[in-house]
């Protein structure tokens, strides 16, 4: 029974950590959002310099730095982004908890096996991409928020720097990176296991 509980905790914490780390990089640093401006082209509407300022301000806001959201964001956006920051704060705390659980339940053979299972499991997120618009509007946001502050309009800076296409690309990126991290863990620990024999 204890072995099964430890195995479950190890599996869940490994999956969470390998997904959370790349997600945190995309949220807490401005580079991914700025890079996406070249693909969705909406940043050009407000001007690349203004978009980059808004992006840098937003990533600093999520890190609890920079004094908050200022000129670029509407009041509605500020309320929504405050909710989003609260979610990221909780995810950060869960990440610390997952890291502790991973350390406490670590078992090389199990981690190697679970990393392979995680790699296969995480690829299922790609199934969302063909139906991303419906998923984003009808499933994700209603589950996460009990208001409609997330619905952007042309007066919101978020409409230009984070269109739906940006989130679709982000899900694709996170899926690929999480998959690769788990494959590297699986291969690395497998090779180490062979060397120890």
Q: Would you give an account of this structure?
A:
With 197 residues, the chain is mainly α. The protein has one domain (2-196). The protein has 9 helices and no strands. It has helices at 2-28, 31-40, 43-46, 48-62, 75-105, 108-122, 132-144, 157-161, 164-196. The longest helix is centred in the last third of the chain and has 33 residues, at 164-196. The radius of gyration is 19 Å and the shape is elongated. The model has no long low-confidence stretch (mean pLDDT 93).
Write the layout of secondary structure elements.
Layout: H1 2-28, H2 31-40, H3 43-46, H4 48-62, H5 75-105, H6 108-122, H7 132-144, H8 157-161, H9 164-196
Give me a quick take on this structure.
This protein is mainly alpha-helical.
Q: Could you say how many structural domains there are in total? A: 1
Q: Which percent range describes the beta-strand content?
A: under 5%
Specify the overall morphology: elongated
The strand count comes to 0
Question: Helix count?
Answer: 9
Q: In angstroms, what separates the terminal alpha carbons?
A: 29 Å
Main sheet specs: none
Quaternary assembly: single chain
Class by helix and strand content? mainly alpha
Helical proportion? Answer: over 70%
Question: SSE string, helix = H, strand = E?
Answer: HHHHHHHHH
Radius of gyration: 19 Å
